[in-house]
Amino acid sequence: MIQASPKDPLANQVIEDLYPSRINETPVVLPRHDPIVYGQASDGPLSPQQLDEFQQNGFLILPAMLSPAQVQACHAELDRLRKNQDLQHRPEAIVEPEGAELRSLFAPHRSEISPLFARVAADRQFAGIAQQILDSEVHIHQSRVNLKPGFAGKEFYWHSDFETWHVEDGMPRMRAVSCSILLTDNFEFNGPLMLVPGSHRRYISCVGQTPENHYKQSLRRQQFGVPDNASLTEMIRQGGIVSATGALGTVVFFDCNTLHGSNGNITPFPRSNLFFVYNSVHNHIVEPFCGCTPRPEFVASRKRCPVLQPCSVLEELAG
Amino acid sequence: MIQASPKDPLANQVIEDLYPSRINETPVVLPRHDPIVYGQASDGPLSPQQLDEFQQNGFLILPAMLSPAQVQACHAELDRLRKNQDLQHRPEAIVEPEGAELRSLFAPHRSEISPLFARVAADRQFAGIAQQILDSEVHIHQSRVNLKPGFAGKEFYWHSDFETWHVEDGMPRMRAVSCSILLTDNFEFNGPLMLVPGSHRRYISCVGQTPENHYKQSLRRQQFGVPDNASLTEMIRQGGIVSATGALGTVVFFDCNTLHGSNGNITPFPRSNLFFVYNSVHNHIVEPFCGCTPRPEFVASRKRCPVLQPCSVLEELAG
User: Fold this and answer.
1) Percent of chain B with pLDDT over 70
2) Least CB-CB distance to A263: which of B157, B191, B236?
3) Which domains does chain A carry?
4) Does the ipTM exceed 0.90?
């Protein structure tokens, strides 16, 4: 049980913790209490087959959703951000330990950081699909630009994003969807996103207690909210692993609770992507269920989360 | 220039260093001075097409060379070795830092360690192919059993084995071939061997000077003999990358100078293999070209290197 934040519309309402984690001493696999696809095929843009695939697997890979010209426009914006010295001193920027090379940038959907990516986040092609799956208006819970270099890309261990968003950010229910826009080719050998089909139907309650300010380390290496080997092995035995390989311009939508991770990358081929998390406006963020201080606004949007007004910037970028 | 070891038949003969490395301050790409395929198709067992593929790419992937029954027999032997407590205290055994789980075992081709693997190393199917490619009798330069666990397999960075064998072991010329027998399924996502086609035709002379006893660290992480980014990028741009995926029982032969590496493995699927390096008896090992003390006998065979007498243990194991 947890109290909603006094400043939000659910104030004084007691929110039941349907997805407890980092509380028990042994891991437990719990059922999902929420729908996966909330909307209808008639709401578009996804077809009934695509919605069914998302419902079954917990993700959907959409090849060639962006044209090379659209990817090019995103790359130009990335270059602009990379060269912006002022940006590198902002907390949103994660720079390489050696040198000052930009590695990740949080909150590119905010127009003071990138007017272009703010509009891309709201584009009908992305926000529209999120609205259809979640059957509601959406806001951005988190967004990120990732610039993974070649030769030395580190692995990202298996996790459910929802587990972290629930425990550390106070996202009460599973009604959010992630969208990863591939801005480079993702081969089988340069550490592509790996997903476990069907894993979104159950919830791994992890062990360990979240320390304060865990997010600072967790951007490098996750130590809490890590699924146990036995649960992982069982889910992968049942569902297998799908590598989300694809040419630049491919877009991957995945459910907030789908297990995913990525291996390291020793190849010279870098991987960069644009990542938006769409949350239903009905899935109102409350106090973190771990009882810790909420993560900063640029990692998990709490206060500034305007409802997205779908636009069509991609059509302009198609040149 | 280097003196041959006084005890060997090439004593007092001055061996020219055709493949200098870890000497210059900047990396250089040198031509290969030696043949790739020394033998003829008529010598069997490889076909003209297979020899040509090896010549062109620097490797050959042979699916289903071992039957499930043969793999099973190798697994039984691995289990026996894993449970042998006496073995874990031998220098040949590399155990996990935590616990005493066997991770790698050197020199399984020596009959005092494994009578079975000693015969597998000499089997016509493996030693016979090496003899054909190298057009001579062969001995084992190095052998290893690798038991890579799931969830936490670490990456192995790009390298040419020959560079190390030349500099640290005193292998004068490129007339050796490696054979990796896959004892588990190798998927695209559990860190399979990656090879760079065509990279065997040139030699990357690396920077840095080899410290004494480098081999102890290099089994964990290679710090010297590491190709530079520019040379790697150029070779991969030209040849691409091939992941040697395949079901258990697949065998991969690759030239001593073919660039290879592997990404980490966060999947639950372990990878184990049996690895033999066949060297031509005409490619007599001399003093290390770096001037350091030679690596121990179990890492690089110098004294005890009987010429293999091909046998046919695989036929027995087929049940």
Assistant:
1) 90
2) B191
3) 21-318 (2.60.120.620)
4) no
